[in-house]
Amino acid sequence: MFKGFHIYESDSNHEYARVYVTEEPKEVDFKIITLKSTYVDPLISHRDVLGALMHLGLERDTFGDIHITEKDIYIQVVAELKQIFTDLHQIKQDFIYFEEVSGIPTDSKQKNEAITLFLDSLRIDNLVSKAFNIHREDVKTMIDQEKVKINYFPVQKYTVLVKPYDIISVRGFGRIILTDDMGTSKSQKIRIKCELLR
């Protein structure tokens, strides 16, 4: 509760959630459904799905996190807009057909790319620059525009240090999950393992 108001989140474990604020405690129906489609093209990424949805003219706040496994795409959407999402039938050259399901399976693992990075420091601007091959000055601009988040909160400074198991979200590029700090290399570079969700 905050200043006499009750705040409800549809899902506190995801980056995108619906929020309901009320003066009275109540059961909240967020009117969210889960849609699922299979896909074939192994190169389809989070970025491709997001681009296809935005091309339909959808506002970003009408759907939640995009969850991609090795063969399925899951997305939680505002129920009254279901028809718009189910009218999407192509992403890149792949045929897509979204249908409503009961939810995202708890054991489903997102498709990711395991990488090892060698860094001068664990500063957020340095990590994002190396992981996505973005010029460091461009990363600083993105931070100023609140397009970079750590654990779902916008980064305020370029000098913030990341640590193992942090989730770094970069709008338009994907996410980085730090999985292991492997110490330093012979050249005194910091060596870390990451999972990239593009």
TrEMBL record:
Keywords: RNA-binding. Signal peptide: none annotated. CDD domains: S4 (cd00165). PROSITE patterns: S4. The keyword Chaperone does not apply. Residues 122-177 form the RNA-binding S4 domain. The keyword Hydrolase does not apply. InterPro entries: Nucleotide-bd_a/b_plait_sf, RqcP2_RBD, S4_RNA-bd, S4_RNA-bd_sf. This is YlmH/Sll1252 family protein.
